[in-house]
Sequence to fold (123 residues):
Amino acid sequence: MVPLSSYVSRNFRSETYGEEASVTMFIGSCICRLQVRQWSENGRKSPMCTARPGWMAVSFREGRYKKTMHNISINLIDILEVDTERRVVRVEPLVSMGQLTATLNPLGWTLPIVPELDDLTVG
Fold:
């Protein structure tokens, strides 16, 4: 088992993200893990999916499947790192294309294919 202080300092460094963002990301990670752990402890009776409401989806399809699944609330909307030396961007799955484009444009970067929907998420 990894000590909590080691986990926090390794994964949520305040010099990278800022103190407030580090604490927020850590709390969000704990909440997500707790929900998954509870689902697992309750016997994994149904498949798991995100609890993102249907109105946030880009698709016109109604997400009826969510009513039969165990919903996990996540708020993974942060751009974690822009490594200009390696030209790598690390993001969480709910980062929107508009958010990503707004971050990359000042650096002179762009995505190889830019979707026209700013609300479309990465993952």
